UniProtKB/TrEMBL annotation, chain A:
The keyword Flavoprotein applies. It comes from the Bacteria. Residues 466-480 have a biased composition (Basic and acidic residues). Pfam families: FAD-oxidase_C (PF02913), FAD_binding_4 (PF01565). This is FAD-binding protein. Residues 465-488 are annotated as: Disordered. It comes from Actinacidiphila acidipaludis. Residues 40-218 form the FAD-binding PCMH-type domain. SUPFAM superfamilies: FAD-binding/transporter-associated domain-like (SSF56176), FAD-linked oxidases, C-terminal domain (SSF55103). InterPro entries: FAD-bd_oxidored_4_C (IPR004113), FAD-bd_PCMH (IPR016166), FAD-bd_PCMH-like_sf (IPR036318), FAD-bd_PCMH_sub1 (IPR016167), FAD-bd_PCMH_sub2 (IPR016169), FAD-linked_Oxase-like_C (IPR016164), FAD-linked_OxidoTrans_Type4 (IPR051914), Oxid_FAD_bind_N (IPR006094). The keyword Ribonucleoprotein does not apply.
From TrEMBL, chain B:
Transmembrane segments: none annotated. Residues 12-187 form the FAD-binding PCMH-type domain. This is FAD-binding oxidoreductase. It comes from Actinacidiphila acidipaludis. Residues 1-12 have a biased composition (Pro residues).
Length: 488, 391
């Protein structure tokens, strides 16, 4: 890409959006070189700090006209590099689009701009006895736009589902600058469920500028239980027993000894000493149902030799139990100079054997792994510890992470449960899907973005062009040089 | 439910239509690779009226031969089953392990592929959602014979585009659904119902709002409504532990200030109404009383014919209504617009209706839907003309 072309585009962006909100100075732009995956850094040519939908439309349209790729960014907390910029491209930052547009408790809808922080939605809904269910651990900072792009989950999605189950509508700027409305405030809109496909598309199909979310009634009762075990098998067995008993808890989280040690060091959450594993089990719903199921869970845990059963007596104790779990990622920084967060999914019933195998791989590599996971849905978050001052340590950690993902795929699971593919795992997509599977996904990409300008170089394992297919009507597609496709 | 006799689903095939019933995914792929004509997939044929009639059908592809439950992992609450498996057969298998697929569309014999393709659901959508909330993996055969999978066998999975959403409700126009993977739920041990008479639309709206804003967790809340009366009854269903359903039923009576507690479901529960023109209505949940008023104001009813009637899934914004054959759909749709509403034809007596009348107006995403269709089925060979806007 020639400098003059970018300069020209930057000039047009300044004219349209205002010089103060179009950054090209390398010192300013550097701030945006990475997201939560700090190991991958790419400096964008231009950063646009959009103030509203019109700025996003203008930026995307100008990029499309110039054939320059763009990446949308929310709070930048993503862990797979989904918001890593393109070197010769434009980064559209959405943090200033942070208006809550409407709160409609009667219809259980909240409409927001994409820069609105996840937790703010619950804050808006709370006075009406409602909540926004998806609760990623980063919920105090992560944005709804990013949640939509990644189909964010969280501890409570075991019972309540993911972002995709709580988005009813979105206004989307397509990669050519056209604005479309997918879904709405009512369910079951006629036509293809493009909204369902858009959620989780990692910014490769367009940019959401308004999102309508579904809120849920806050439950009558919430009970939170911390269980300590001498063996990982005891904890994993309890999870299986709970599911087999026909109970769907709001959350079932597990941490192993190393993760407990880190959490203790960081936040003094008072988890049972000497535990090889702890489970955090939360039940919510009508009082009678929760009371009955709670007794059942305690019985099942006791049968699996839980040596400590601690019940949160009030909100403060509940928060403390969760604090240990929710701060576990950051806490690992206390026991290791650096670490690498992995995200894989296995069928829940295979937890014990996969954990044993992860331990075996870690020992063989001479690397420590702390395990924190959403045990209820088999979503593992191995935290791979390494010393980044040791040459080759980071690469060894990544190799171990890759081997763990292979285990997940071979067990019938997935390479990502909630962090997304991004740049981090795109090569692994070919491990989980066939070439035909990926080609078919790419057809959707081409329908939305024939020029390949929206967040190129993510999600798909190899760069690919859309090309023309015999019989395809292209009247709606602006003519473009196919060489400008995903080669960036 | 009373009313006019059931309108049989329209025939898809014409006199020159060839028929095939492949018995495996590979055979399905072979079949599609080997033809250049138009193909319309059907399962048990229970919902063929739910989409506009195809503009061409050279080959009717019956999925009944794809009838294996491929993999069932009770401990993981996941099942993989081919498209031609009847839902009832699957439920029977799952019940042995105290589990279920939490979908309850009433059409007898309906197959999994047909349920996905028509996006069919029933009263329990209130608690469990619809196909889009339960389908975690899918395999389709595209028009060119490509076999493509999306999703997986674990509930939590964000790898790649979730194409299952795209095929849901697509009526076979993007690919032939050949295999489905589902998230399952435990069957609940006990049931209680609360039945309340409803005398006018405002009362229906009040009851629905009270339920929606309570901490009760009903599995379903179905309103049977006859606009001519006007009136009907609301049945609130609880399925949970014995103590919980008892307590919730009692609390419901207190909340609504009325109601009779029982454990049986009324005969009409979950059935779609029958008549000359049956519609699926969708609207903002809180608009229920307004939608009831819109139906009440419909005219064009020949004397002696039943008035608009139907079942309304309270708190979800979905309803099935039988309206007089002469109902002006454009006017009805316009009346629902303030509530983000839609009205889709499910059954119509008389001459076949084209896509426009069947689905209603297309939104601003229609050009994009057209581009999706053109990428998945560039020669427009799969279920041509059945979808919104004639896709």
């Amino acid at each position: 890409m020639s400098d003059t072309r970018i300069d020209l585009l930057a000039g047009r962006l300044r004219d349209r959006i205002g010089a103060a909100h179009v950054l090209t100075d390398p010192a300013q732009v550097r701030t945006y070189a990475c997201d939560g995956l700090a190991t991958v850094r790419v400096q964008p040519a231009v950063v646009v700090l959009a103030a509203g939908r019109d700025d996003v439309v203008a930026a995307v349209r100008l990029c499309a006209q110039a054939g320059v790729p763009f990446v949308a960014r929310g709070s930048g907390t993503g862990l797979s590099g989904g918001a890593v910029p393109v070197a010769d491209g434009v980064l559209v930052v959405l943090s200033r689009l942070r208006r809550v547009l409407s709160v409609d408790p009667d219809n259980a809808r909240v409409e927001v701009e994409p820069g609105v922080v996840n937790l703010w939605v619950t804050r808006e809904a709370a006075p009406h006895g409602q909540a926004y269910a998806p609760d990623p651990s980063s919920q105090q900072v992560c944005s709804i736009g990013g949640n939509v792009a990644e189909n964010a989950g969280g501890a409570h999605c075991l019972k309540y589902g993911f972002t995709v189950n709580h988005v009813t509508g979105a206004e989307v700027v397509l990669p050519d600058g056209e604005v479309v409305h997918l879904g709405g405030t009512a369910p079951e809109h006629p036509g293809y469920d493009l909204l369902g496909a858009f959620v989780g598309s990692e910014g490769t199909l367009g940019v959401a500028t308004r999102v309508t979310l579904r809120t849920v009634q806050a439950p009558e009762t919430v009970r939170t239980l911390l269980l300590g075990y001498r063996t990982v098998e005891g904890a994993a067995g309890t999870v299986s027993d709970i599911i087999a008993a026909g109970i769907v808890p709001a959350a079932v989280e597990m941490m192993d000894a190393l993760a407990i040690e880190a959490a203790e060091a960081a936040v003094r959450c008072g988890y049972p000493e000497g535990a090889a594993a702890v489970l955090v089990v939360e039940l919510d719903g009508p009082a009678a149902e929760v009371a009955e199921q709670f007794e059942q869970v305690v019985r099942l845990a006791t049968a699996r030799a839980a040596f400590e059963t601690r019940v949160a007596r009030d909100a403060a104790e509940r928060d403390l139990i969760w604090k240990g779990r929710k701060s576990a990622f950051a806490a690992v920084g206390r026991i290791s100079p650096a670490y690498y967060v992995q995200d894989g999914v296995i069928p829940r019933t295979r937890l014990p054997e996969i954990l044993t195998e992860i331990g075996r791989l870690a020992d063989a590599a001479g690397i420590r792994v702390a395990n924190v996971f959403h045990a209820g849905d088999g979503n593992l978050h191995p935290l791979i510890l390494f010393d980044d001052t040791v040459p080759g340590a980071e690469a060894a950690a990544e190799d171990l992470g890759s081997a763990i993902l292979d285990l997940c795929v071979d067990a019938g699971g997935s390479i990502t449960g909630e962090h997304g593919v991004g740049v981090e795992k795109k090569a692994k997509m070919a491990r989980q899907f066939t070439a035909d599977d990926l080609d078919t996904m790419h057809r959707l990409r081409c329908a939305f973005d024939p020029a390949g300008l929206a967040n190129p170089g993510k999600l798909f394992p190899t760069p690919r062009l859309c090309g023309e297919r015999p019989g395809v009507r292209t009247a709606d597609d602006p003519g473009r040089d196919p060489a400008l496709g995903e080669v960036f | 439910m009373g009313g006019a006799p059931r309108t049989p689903p329209p025939a898809i095939a014409g006199p020159d239509t060839a028929r095939a019933r492949p018995e495996s995914v590979a055979e399905t792929a072979e079949l599609l690779r080997g033809t250049s004509g138009t193909v319309v997939p059907v399962g048990a044929g229970t919902k063929t009226g739910w989409a506009a009639p195809p503009t061409s059908c050279d080959l009717l592809l019956r999925t009944g031969g794809l009838c294996r439950i491929t993999e069932y992992l009770p401990g993981d609450l996941v099942v993989v089953a081919e498209a031609g498996v009847p839902l009832a057969a699957l439920q029977e298998c799952l019940a042995d392990h105290g589990q279920m697929l939490a979908l309850d569309p009433p059409e007898p014999d309906a197959t999994l592929g047909g349920i996905v393709s028509a996006n069919a659901s029933g009263p329990r959508r209130l608690r469990y959602g619809t196909v889009r909330d339960l389908l975690i993996g899918v395999t389709v055969v595209l028009a060119d014979g490509t076999v493509a999978r999306a999703g997986g066998k674990v509930v939590k999975n964000v790898a790649g585009y979730d194409l299952g959403k795209l095929y849901t409700g697509a009526h076979g126009s993007l690919g032939v659904v050949v295999s489905t993977t589902w998230r399952l739920h435990p069957r609940q041990p006990a049931r209680a119902t609360v039945t309340v008479p409803v005398h006018d639309s405002a009362q229906a709206g009040r009851y629905a709002a009270l339920l929606a804003r309570s901490t009760l967790t009903p599995t379903a809340a179905e309103l049977k409504w006859d606009a001519a009366a006007p009136g009907g009854e609301l049945v609130v269903l609880f399925e949970s532990t014995a103590a919980s359903v008892r307590a919730q039923a009692r609390d419901t009576v207190a909340l609504l200030g009325a109601g009779r507690v029982a454990d049986a479901l009324p005969g009409w529960f979950g059935h779609r109404p029958e008549g000359d023109l049956v519609l699926r209505l969708a609207y903002e949940p809180f608009a229920l009383p307004r939608v009831l008023d819109v139906l009440g104001a419909l005219d064009g009813r020949p004397s002696g014919a039943p008035g608009p009637h139907g079942t309304f899934s309270a708190c979800t914004g979905v309803a099935y209504a039988a309206v007089p054959a002469g109902t002006g759909l454009a006017e009805l749709r316009a009346a629902l617009t303030p509530y983000d509403g839609s009205a889709v034809v499910l059954a119509a007596a008389g001459p076949a209706r084209g896509a426009a009348e069947h689905w209603g107006p297309t939104g601003d995403a229609f050009p994009l839907m057209t581009r999706v269709k053109d990428r998945f089925d560039p020669e427009r060979r799969l279920s041509p003309g059945r979808l919104l806007g004639g896709l």
